[in-house]
């Protein structure tokens, strides 16, 4: 976890992310203590995230989302405007995606499609992710290896894409840098 930086837009986006997490938690009737127990994260850390005072890693955000019955991209798709979504490079906070990379939402608002941009990423496989909906991964630069549990691992290079049922446990790692990956999943209902 890293603290918020001085960029005002980044701080506003972290506040919005915290509000989205708090709203989802309250909709489910959970206290911070209950969410801490469900997620395995500390109550003080969760409180800081909800107040926009701490930036969760992508792994922590995924854990929070799982405890809230949703996905990290759903939480990052901050509820701002309906209709058109213009996101400038500095508009959305980057979330740590392992020690080697960052992730950020590249659309705002309650959307059916949840696009994420990943710059860099883990060099070794981390835990599997799984969620409702479908997902497509597109490689802009570098090479990655995707592990779909129970399937042969897939190697994707520049301009390759992989479409799959997101309920299948999945994870990926970077094989060559610079890795720039776009992943789009459908919203869990």
Automatic annotation (TrEMBL):
InterPro entries on file: Cro/C1-type_HTH, Cupin_2, Lambda_DNA-bd_dom_sf, RmlC-like_jellyroll, RmlC_Cupin_sf, TransReg_Diox_bact_type
Top-level lineage group: Bacteria
CDD domains given in the database record: cupin_XRE_C, HTH_XRE
Alphabetical keyword list: DNA-binding
Sequence ranges assigned to domain HTH cro/C1-type in this UniProt record: 21-75
Pfam families documented for this protein: Cupin_2 (PF07883), HTH_3 (PF01381)
Protein name as annotated: XRE family transcriptional regulator
């Amino acid at each position: 976890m890293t603290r918020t930086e001085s960029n005002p837009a980044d701080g506003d986006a972290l506040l919005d992310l915290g509000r989205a997490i708090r709203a989802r938690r309250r909709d489910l009737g959970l206290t911070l203590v209950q969410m801490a127990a469900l997620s395995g994260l500390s109550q003080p850390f969760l409180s800081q995230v909800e107040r926009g005072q701490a930036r969760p890693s992508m792994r922590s955000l995924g854990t929070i989302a799982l405890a809230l019955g949703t996905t990290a991209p759903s939480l990052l798709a901050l509820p701002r405007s309906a209709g058109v979504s213009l996101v400038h490079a500095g508009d959305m906070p980057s979330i740590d995606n392992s020690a080697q990379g960052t992730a950020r939402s590249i659309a705002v608002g309650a959307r059916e499609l949840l696009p994420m941009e990943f710059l860099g990423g883990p060099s070794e496989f981390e835990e599997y992710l799984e969620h409702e909906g479908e997902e497509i991964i597109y490689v802009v630069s570098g090479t990655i290896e995707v592990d779909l549990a129970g399937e042969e691992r897939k190697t994707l290079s520049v301009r390759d894409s992989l479409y799959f049922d997101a309920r299948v446990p999945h994870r990926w790692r970077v094989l060559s840098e610079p890795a720039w990956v776009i992943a789009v999943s459908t919203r869990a209902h």
